[in-house]
Structure formats: C-alpha cells, structure tokens
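Q: Entry one of two.
A:
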Amino acid sequence: MTTLTIPIGDTRSLLFPLRDGDVVSFIASTTLLQPDSSPNGDNTSLNLVSGDDDYLLHISFRRADQSVRLNSRRPDGPWGAEESFKFDGSFTDGRPSVVSVSVRGSKYLIAIDGRLRYTYAQRINAPAKGLRYGRNGDMTTAIFGNSVNAQVVHTLPPPNPSQSFSINVGDTYTLNSALTNDQFVYFISTTTSLTPDPSPGGDTTSLNLLSGDGDWLLCISIRRVNNTVVFNARNATGGWGVDEIISSKGFFQEGQPASVIVQNRSSVFDIYIDGILRYTFKKRINQPVRAVRYHRNGNMNTQVFAYNINVAIDGQ
C-alpha cells in the first residue's frame, strides 16, 4: 500500500500505473459543507490523471447544490457530458470522509465511506499515473480542507510479469535473463511475523540480488530485534562492506501481507516497502543481477516473511 499526501492544487505521481483491481482511497481528516462564496462557483475535485495529463476521472464536489459531478477530458479538449449524483447524507460537517475509486475492467467504482455510490464507464483508454486534488482558483475553502491523503492498494504481483516464481527460504533462483535498467523485482509474502527469533546467531531475514558469479549485489536484511533494515553488498569470496541502516518501524504489520520491491537503476537500487520508496542503495559491484536469494540465519526457526514467497520480474 502506498500513502501520498496531496495539498490542494497539487498532483502526485504514482510509482505504478493503476491496474484492474487497484483501489485509491482519498482520505480527508475533516469535511467542510459550507459552500465557498467564490463568484465562479464552489467546485472541489479529486482526479485520476494519465501520463499525458488526461483527466481520466474528474470527481467534482459541489456544496451549493449538494451534488457530485463526474467527467473526463483530454488536456486541451472540452469536458464531456456530466454524470452526477446527490450527496444524500454521504458527508457530515466536521467529520472525516473517505472517497474510494476502484478500477474494475473498463469502469471506475466510486464509494463514499464504504458505500458504493456510482459506477463510471471509462471514456479515455489510458492508465492513471497521477492523483490530483483541485478547486476553483479563487476559492478560499475546499470541502476536504487544505490537503488529502491518498492510499493506493495495488494488485500484486503485476498482471503480466516477464518472469514469476516462488522461492523457499534458504533457496536461490536463477533468472531467465539479467535484469535490465528500470526493471522491478517484486518479493511478495502472504504474511509477516514481527516476533524475533531467539536464535543465538541473531535474527536476520534477507532478500538478495546476486550476480552470475555469486556476488551479493544487494542484501536487504530485516532485523526484528531492533526494528531495522540493513543494506549491504559483498563479492562472492570477500567480506561485507559498511552497513547502511534505516529504521523499519511502521513498515510491516503483524500477520499481514507484505511486499518489497527493488527497481534496478543504472547506478543504484531503489527499494520500496509496501509501495513506498524507503531507501536508495548505491551499487558497489558492477555486475548484472542474474539471481535472487531468500535467506535467514541458519539456526533460526522463523523468519519475517512466509516460508515460501512469490517473486516477479516486471518492467522493460
């Protein structure tokens, strides 16, 4: 899950375009039902936009007549025919609100506080790559305040990976081909255990990218004892380098699914945990990624993730 804060008037780009089955929830800490006195009308909107700035879904909230208007348009084109429905008690003044959009095939399902209110047929065939929170320029208030949080839940693994497989803890899997620049490696677990293993050798679960010669190009080590994630690398026959360490507090939830996604850049690895960029690791060994390894200390009986996890390769 990815969480983005969107100030009024701003757009936030998504790491991955929205796909069938994905859900975006716009979460407002308060709701202001008093209409704005702007001469150009009271209009606050939540929007899904494409990479070309198409308004794929424009959800406009009109407090003056208690209505929600839905529309779409190209960047330089006119708005189409409006579709609308009434508030009908969906909002309470001064209370939080959640507006969710689910992608279902060629339709967007719009729910307010968990109640499905409208199904909108997509008019522009393009994936949503950004989220926008807007209002008329001369307004001084907006129905959802000065910012909203957007939670994005992606379907995992990606729908058409170039390669996918499952791997047990302790195993190494050789890829069909070396990772290319900008490709993603998805590590997906059905569950998470946050209780440290009492092993005398230390509690360490790691996800690893290896070269064809067995170099550890990236080691992502999760340490439950002190709530940290440690990043490192080493040659096949050499010692570990200097640890790079971040706190893992809030990254994982007990008993819940988890994803760790690594994007292979030209000189760095970007590491995302549950869809949020957590760290950028500068490459130390100039070799292509040709294998992945799922590992725990040899005398441990438990690990952070499931014993068997899914792995997928996606991207160009």
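Q: Entry two of two.
A:
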Amino acid sequence: MDNEQSLELHRSDAFSPLNQYVLGVQEKIAASAAAVYVLHRRTVVNEWYSGTHGFSPGSRPVGADSRFNVASVRKTYLGFAVSLALYEGRIGGLDDPVSDYIADPDGALLAGTTIRHLLTHTHGLASPQKRIFPPGAGWAYNNVGVNLLIRMIGEVFGKPLAQLLNEKVFRPGGFTETGWRKHQTDGLVWLNEAYSSEEGTDINLFVSARELASWGQLHLSKGMWNGMQLIPRPVWEQTAEIISPEGLGDALPRNGFFWFVQDRPRSLTELGHELPAGSYQSLGSTGCACLVIPEKEAVAVRMYNQTGPNPGGYSYLDDIRTFGNTVYGCLNVMDLQADRSP
C-alpha cells in the first residue's frame, strides 16, 4: 500500500468495545477472519485483526495486507464510475433511460427505467426478464441494476470497469491492495469460489481493510489525496447525496450512488439509528462494511469472510446497525477523552 504515508497513527483504547463486538459477530457467523480499521481526521485511531485466512491448519494469520472479498461493497466503486461518466458528459443525466446507453433484447421491459432507478435499487426488476413493480414505485435489493450499469460503463468509456478504476484512481492514488482477482494468491482471504473475469463484472473485488478505509476517506475528503485532487471534487460529492426517487415508502432506505445514506432513521435501512444525518455506508454479504461519518470526519471499516448462511437468531440488519452505533459511540468516547486530556 503506497498511500499509507499520508495517514498518521494514533491508537485509542476507546474502540475496545467495537473490537469486542466485531469479534463476537465473527464467532456467531463462523467467519475465520476479521478486521477493523478506523480513521478519524485522517489519523488511524483503531486497527485490529483476528483469525486466519481459512479454517485449514496452517492458514495465514490475518494482517494489515490481508485482502478480503468485499462482495456488494464493490457497488460503490461502480457508483463512482457512473458519477464520473455524468461529470464528463458521457451520460446526460440521472433520469436518462437506461436503454439510451445499452442495447438490450428486452428493451420493452426496461421502458421507463432510468439510471437513477438502477443506482437506488428502485428499478423494479427481479431479473432481466421479470419486473416486480413499476420503476420508482418501490425498493428491492438485487444485482440486476448493477449488471446493467456495469455494461453501460463499458459502453460509455469503451473499457471495462476495473481498467477504468485502475487508470483513474488505483494507480494515481497508490492503491496496491485493491482489485478484482480470479486466482488465489497468498494475500487474498479466499472464499473457494470460481470467478471468470478480472474486468469488474464478477463479485470478486478484494481489498485490504486499510485500503477500504482509504476508499471511504477519498469520499470524505472529496477526492483530495496526498496533497492532490484525485478526480474533480463534484464527482465524489454527488456519490453520497440522496438521489432516491420521490414518493418511496417511509420505511425504505434512501440511497446515493449505491451508498445507503442517512437522512433520518428508517426501519429498513442498514444504518444505525444513532448515526447522524449525512452518514453513509455500504455492506457486503461476506460481512464487510465501509461506514463514513462526515460529522465526525471518520471512516470505519470492518471485514469478515462469511460464506455460510446466517445462523438462527442472527439479523444482519440488527448487526450492521449495532456496528454503526458502536462506532459512533466509540468516537464520542474518544472525543471526551481528548477534551479531558491536559
């Protein structure tokens, strides 16, 4: 990781409850590996690792360079690419029909479906051949919209998503522990799955905890990185603004460019109810999550390698909300400790 020199180190014991909580969930969901990484004002205030890359004897211990499959957190990287396409004029606007940018044999099914709908899970498509509600009339989480946007990005940029991110962000920013991988190597917390591509089309984005935190920091700092503006500020700003269609049910989540964004507590959102407005987060099925709290100038990351079904009595929504609330509580404790220090 070439960008670590930009981050100061100042560990705080205020985060012990967070580490203990993540450890407890690790045991509950039968993950062999876990990590926590917290930045506050670009300072590393908590870094914690647990377990090994797998359950087999001799599996490598989890460390700073261990790279986890972040699953659906990859969608925030796609969301960034869509934002960049808008900024560069490759896409006219969020309310443009998807069919303007990709050729699809089921174009009739896409009628009325916009880029906004795909980014906010309000497109109503259960599969490329099945619709469950009209565009903008509800919210349903799946990968149909994701796959359509990946195709669109390839069309408007003339290159795969992974190549675009390598050229625009990863190489200029010194990100060496982030990328789509289809072959197992020593540094990857492997899930024993088969992947067909490294172009950004599969669910195989592997990232270290510290570089996922840096991804969150890039959004928090609006692209300012190591003293340079890495992609214009508006590209980063709009990714975490709520763009969900008007009229959604009160309980339903509100989204930016795939990020879940807090406006106020909602019963079906993954954001903890104690988190302040403007906080945003992304969660993957492996348990990995990236949480950004602008009010606190903080980024918190947790990593797991969950592969099995959720155990009985476990609610992923309760879990991820508790994670966010615990992060926020620890940040408050740290602030109190700082106020009391001479």
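A: Comment on entry two: The chain has one domain: 4-340. The helical segments are 16-28, 75-87, 115-119, 144-157, 161-173, 209-220, 233-239, 316-340.
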